[in-house]
């Protein structure tokens, strides 16, 4: 008798368990040791909130965290705006001259090593005499993340029926109004997803920020990297735990918002 294909074997269960443990066990250990009372990260000294209090009184870390949030928010917004426009140009525009070159330059950061991108941006800022700081890091992160937004939005634009826009224009809308009233609401989930992806990539970047940052504009990943080179402090575990908590809250809120939007769409659908 043939063996059912959908049967879960012990090997599959063990492989899944080992894979999940490999991915998430280090994170669980990090969260647990963020509540360690001992100064040594490898020695358990009991439960304590000591290192969270240390982080809240560490002005350098707080400034770096605030800088990372500002850079990520501004660069994600700029990348979403530019990436959406680029995706619309590639999906809705005609076969304009230089389209292949434009798309290749747009998607180049997807495959280009971050070291090359960071070094080239550094040489550009030095050549134009720009003072490295908040805006140089923001421009660099916008350059890095814009292509990711363009990919996400273009994948949403590709299957959309253009007859919806044509119908709107037949009813009196100009092309801009048709896009804002018909196409934009349909691709808004992809735009929001692109913004979140760009925000995450900017918040996590170390390589490009290390090339383009200046005095007083160090981001949180750079600050943590500089601290780790001198030895891992339990305070760093507390910082990472807070970041994980923030990400979990954002995911939960986004999930509830998506379900609420789907429920409203189903209730508004005609019977």
Automatic annotation (TrEMBL):
GO terms for biological process: transmembrane transport. InterPro entries: Bact_Polyamine_Transport, MetI-like, MetI-like_sf. CDD domains: TM_PBP2. Its main location: membrane. One of its GO terms (cellular component) is plasma membrane. Pfam families: BPD_transp_1. Keywords: Cell membrane, Membrane, Transmembrane, Transmembrane helix, Transport. Residues 65-257 form the ABC transmembrane type-1 domain. It is a multi-pass membrane protein. It is found in: Cell membrane. The chain crosses the membrane at residues 12-35, 71-90, 102-128, 134-157, 178-198, 236-257. Belongs to the binding-protein-dependent transport system permease family. CysTW subfamily. This is ABC transporter permease subunit.
């Amino acid at each position: 008798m043939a063996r059912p294909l959908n049967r879960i074997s012990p090997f599959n269960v063990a492989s899944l368990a080992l894979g999940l443990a490999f991915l998430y066990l280090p994170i669980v250990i990090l969260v647990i040791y963020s509540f360690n009372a001992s100064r040594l990260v490898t020695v358990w000294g009991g439960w304590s909130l000591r290192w969270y209090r240390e982080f809240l009184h560490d002005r350098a870390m707080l400034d770096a965290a605030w800088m990372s949030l500002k850079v990520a928010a501004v660069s994600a917004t700029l990348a979403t705006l530019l990436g959406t426009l680029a995706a619309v140009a590639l999906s809705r525009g005609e076969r304009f001259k230089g389209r292949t070159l434009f798309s290749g330059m747009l998607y180049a950061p997807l495959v280009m090593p971050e070291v090359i991108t960071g070094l080239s941006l550094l040489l550009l800022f030095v050549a134009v005499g720009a003072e490295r700081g908040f805006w140089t890091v923001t421009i660099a992160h916008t350059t890095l993340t814009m292509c990711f937004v363009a990919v996400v939005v273009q994948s949403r634009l590709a299957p959309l029926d253009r007859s919806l826009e044509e119908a709107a224009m037949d009813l009196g809308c100009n092309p801009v109004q048709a896009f804002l009233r018909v196409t934009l609401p349909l691709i808004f989930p992809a735009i929001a997803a692109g913004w979140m992806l760009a925000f995450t990539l900017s918040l996590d970047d170390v390589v490009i920020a290390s090339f383009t940052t200046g005095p007083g504009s160090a981001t949180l990943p750079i600050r943590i990297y500089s601290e780790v080179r001198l030895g891992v402090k339990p305070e760093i575990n507390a910082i990472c735990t807070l970041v994980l908590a923030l990400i979990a809250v954002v995911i939960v809120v986004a999930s509830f918002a998506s379900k609420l939007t789907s429920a409203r769409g189903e209730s508004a659908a005609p019977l």
